[in-house]
Specification:
globular, 42% helix, 319 residues, four-stranded antiparallel beta sheet, 8% strand
């Protein structure tokens, strides 16, 4: 019997799950393939550089995330000349039961970009399900350039089979609205106006009280519970980000990784074709720490936190 689960997989210490937009797109594609192959149903998802979240109806949540991790590990290790386990060994799996508990979980997964300071609203971030719901009512039915069907295999796990009705945009990302259970999720929110309200409200005391009054076997769904065990889980900081006031001088992980991978790595490994940060000796990666921080501020007036530099330089990885 299928039940609803919140599933979260995080990176190991001082490393990332995804280093680029292309990696994040692969993350969703590989999750989508696992969902389809297991006859599961996906309600919401959020992919960040350090972790991923999804809400899925399935009878085997552990098998679902194991399939995703295995496929993505093969991709990531081949892409970056890396070896070893990818992601944490034990993902966080939580059964979610009850209308108000489910709504709270949906809100937290869809609002990942807001809570982590990646966008001033949940709708400004590409790698989550926030833009997949009420698309017609919210004016998001723009025509998207599509990738030819015979090119889709380049962005999918090897030996996977994808029915032709599922389309992919020209960047290689499957269209979320065709994978997600959009009609079911929209029925839970009720109206587009309520959805917009839920995505932009600050605090949720009313929702928390509704959960307390609900007959449910689930624990109270809170931001602290959803982010349990994930990197960057400073709850006070995540809640401050709900205001949508982002620091323009803060560099994001994807920007920092692009700088490292496209500028610094080629300089340090000029004899290697398509070099990777993982091919740079550990001592040289450590040396880059202060150099990059100084360069960022001097040349771009951007700052990176110590944790950002450590994970973008993969200082938790030693082959």
């Amino acid at each position: 019997m299928q039940k609803l689960y919140h599933i979260s997989l995080s990176s190991t210490e001082d490393e990332l799950l995804f280093r680029s937009d292309a990696d994040l797109a692969r993350g969703f594609n590989y999750l989508a393939i696992a969902i389809l192959e297991m006859d599961a149903r996906l309600l919401a998802d959020g992919f960040l550089t350090t972790h991923l979240h999804c809400l899925a109806l399935t009878d085997s949540p552990k098998e679902l995330i194991t399939r995703v991790r295995y496929s993505l590990a093969r991709y990531f290790n081949a892409m970056y000349a890396r070896r070893g386990m990818w992601g944490e060994r034990n993902p966080f799996i939580l059964e979610v039961d009850g209308f108000h508990h489910t709504l709270a979980a949906l809100n937290y997964v869809n609002r990942q970009a807001l809570h982590h300071g990646l966008s001033p609203t949940p709708f400004g971030y590409r790698h989550s399900s926030a833009n997949a719901f009420f698309r017609k009512q919210l004016g998001k039915m723009e025509r998207i350039p599509l990738l030819p069907t015979n090119q889709r295999y380049k962005y999918l796990p090897s030996r996977s089979s994808l029915p032709e009705q599922y389309r992919m945009d020209e960047s290689g990302l499957l269209l979320r609205e065709e994978i997600l259970e959009t009609a079911h999720v929209e029925s839970l929110y009720g109206t587009p106006r309520n959805y917009i309200y839920q995505m932009n409200k600050i605090g949720d005391e009313k929702g928390l009280q509704a959960q307390k009054e609900e007959a449910s076997s689930s624990p109270l769904i809170t931001l602290e519970l959803i982010e349990q065990g994930t990197p960057e889980n400073d709850i006070s900081g995540l809640l401050r980000n709900e205001s949508g006031k982002l620091n323009p001088n803060r560099i994001l992980d994807l920007e920092l990784c692009a700088l490292i991978d496209d500028v610094f790595v080629p300089r340090l490994s000029s004899r290697i074709e398509n070099p990777s940060i993982y091919q740079i000796p550990y001592a040289r990666r450590v040396d880059l720490f202060d150099h990059i921080r100084k360069t960022l501020w001097a040349e771009r007036k951007k700052f990176a936190t110590e944790d950002q530099l450590k994970r973008c330089l993969c200082l938790g990885y030693r082959p």
